[in-house]
Amino acid sequence: MTRDEALFEFLLRLGDNTSILSHRVSEWIGHSPVLEEDIALANTALDLIGQTQLWLGLAGEIEGKGRTADNLAYLRDAWDYRNLLLVERPNGDFGKTMMRQFLFDAWQSLMLGKLLASSDPRVAEIAAKASKEVAYHLERSADTIVGLGDGTEESHNRMQAALDDLWDYTGEMFISDEVDEVLATEGIAPNAASLKAEWEELVGRILTDATLTIPAKSYAHKGGKSGVHTEHLGFILADMQFLQRAYPGASW
Amino acid sequence: MYAQMVKTSGNGVKARDEMSDNERAFQDRIDAGEKIEPKDWMPDDYRLTLMRQIGQHAHSEIVGQLPEGNWITRAPTLERKAILIAKVQDEAGHGLYLYCAAETLGVSRDELIEELHAGRMKYSSIFNYPTLNWSDMGAVGWLVDGAAIMNQVPLQRTSYGPYSRAMVRVCKEESFHQRQGYSIMLKMATGTDAQKAMAQDSLNRFWYPSLMMFGPPDADSVHSEQSMAWKIKINTNDELRQKFVDQTIPQIEYLGLECPDKTIAWNDEKGGYDYAQPDWNEFFNVIKGNGPCNKERLAARVKAWEDGEWVRDGLLAHAKKKAARVAAE
Amino acid sequence: MSNEWPLWEVFIRGQHGMSHRHVGSLHAPDGEMAIKNARDVYTRRNEGVSIWVVEAANISASSPSGKGPLYEPSNSKVYRHPTFFDIPDDVGAM
After folding, report:
1. Closest Cα of chain A to C27: distance in Å?
2. Predicted ipTM beyond 0.95
3. Strands B272-274 and B265-267
4. Is the CB of A39 inside 8 Å of chain C's CB atoms?
5. Using an 8 Å Cβ cutoff, are B138 and B196 in contact?
6. CATH second-level architecture of A3-246?
7. Sign of CA dihedral B169, B172, B177, B180
C-alpha cells in the first residue's frame, strides 16, 4: 500500500466518523430533553460537519480523481464507508447518545492531539482546527456522563445500561492494520493501538467520577474500517443520500 | 401573529376618564415611548396578554423546529445540511430568548411548556403544515420566516422592555433565514425540471398558509385595539399582510414561478397588489386542531419533554449533590 | 414544579476589554452548566469571551424610580414575582 493510498483510507475513516456521528446527533434537534441541549447538540453537529468537509475534502485531493467531499459523502455505498461501528449505533435514549459521544470524543481528542504533529502539514492543519472544537465536545460530554451517572438512581441505571451496550464497540478504535502501519512509519498518523492506554485512563477517570462500572468482559466488534458495517449504516445512507440518488446530476 | 386570536379584554380601550391613576400614568408612559420593565406597575390585562403573546411566540419557535428538522438528515449536501441545522438551532435560541422574556412577567418556562402541552396555549398555525419536499425548506425560509420578520421588525418597538430586547436579538439573527430560504428556491427554480416542479409545488402549498400567519382580516378580528394602544401590537393584520404580498410578488416573478393566486393584480390607486383572501375556514380548522400535523407536532414536543424528564432530574440531582459536597468541605 | 432548573442571568464580556453586559437568561442545574449553556446559546462558542452567570434569585434590585402609584417600596428581586398568575382559559379566544 502506498503512502497516498493509506492516507486516503485514513482520511475517509476520520471524515466518515464525523459525518455519521454528526448525522446521528442531528436527529435530536427539536427533540432534546431541554432547549439548551437542542442548541448545544446542534453546535456539536455543526462542528462535526465542518470537520467532515475538511477530512473528506483532503481525501478527495489525495485520491486525485476529482471527487469532492460531497461526492464522497453522498455517492458511496455502505461497503465503501470507513467509519467506526460505534458512530452508527442508534441514538437510543439521551444517555446512550451521550455515552456514544463521550467514548468517541475521548478517542477523537487523543487522535487529534497526535495529528497536530503529523508530518503531513495539511493533516496537522485540519487537526489544529478540529482539536479546539473537540476539546469542548469532550468537556461537555464528560460532564454529562458524570452528571447523569451520578444523578438519580434512574439516570445512573440508564447510563450504566448505555455503557454496557456500547463498550464492545470501543475496541475497534485500537485495532491497527496496514493503513496504520504505513502512516505510522511515515510519521503522518499514530498507530491505532498506541492510543489505547491513554484512552482507557481518561475514560476510566470520568466513568469512576460518574460512579459507573466498566463491563468486566468485553469483545471488540469490528469491520467498519474495512467497510463491513452493521445493518444501521444502510438506513442512515438511505436517508442521507436519497435526494442525490433520486435526482442524479442536480445541483443543490 | 402569535396572538392570532388573543383578546386583550372584552371591552375595547378604556377612555382616559375611566382609568385609574395608575392606568393613566401607565398609558402616558407608553405614549411617550418609554419601555415598561419587569418591576414596573402594569395592568393585569397587560401582563396576561403579554404572557400569552410572548409565550405563544416562544412556543411557535420551538414547534417551528420540527417542520424543518424533518429534512435535516435528508439535506442533499454537507453545506445545505449545516445551514439548515444552524437555522433550526437559531429557532431554538429564539424560543429560549422569548421564554426568558415571558418569565420576567411572573411565570416559569416549565409552566408555559405545560400549558402548551395541555393544549391551553397555542403556536402559529403555519407549523401545522407538512414539509413534503426539499423545496419546502426554501419556501419555509422565504415565506414563513419572511412573514415572521415582517411582524418582528416593528415589534422591536413594542412597549415591554424584555420583549423588545428579545426582538432586537431575534431580528439580528433572522436576517440569514429568509436569504437561505430564497437561495434554495432560486437553486431549485433554475435547476432541473423536477427541481423546478418541486419549487412550484412548495409555493402552491405554502402561499395561502403564509398569508394566514398574519391572522384574520381586521374586520373579522377579535378586539386588538387595546393591544395596539399598549403597543403590544404595532400593525394591524391587514397592514402586514398587504406589505408581505407586495414584497413577495416580485420575488415570485424573479424565480420564474407562478403564484397560486391567479387574481393577483397591481392596484395603482392603493399602490399595492389586490389579492385573494385565504380560506379562513381552513385557518379556523387548523387552529382548532384539524391541520395536517397538529397531532404529530404536539406529540413530538410532549414526547421530547417526557422522555427527557429523567435527564433533567438527573442533572439537577447531580448539581445538588455537588453543592452539598462543597458545603461539607 | 420542584424539579425545575433554576433561572440564570448571563453577562458577557466581548473580546476587547469592555465591561460585562447583560445578554439574557437561560436555565441550568448549576453555575458550571449555566456557563457552558451560555457559551452555546449566547456566544455560539466564540473564544476569548468572559462569561458570568448569576442565579436570578440571587440578584437584588433597586425599585423603579418615580413617585406615587408606580413606586414599589420593597427592595426585591430583579423580577417582580407576584402570586402565581394562572393563565385563564378565557384570555384569548383560542
Report:
1. 8
2. yes
3. antiparallel
4. yes
5. no
6. Up-down Bundle (1.20)
7. negative
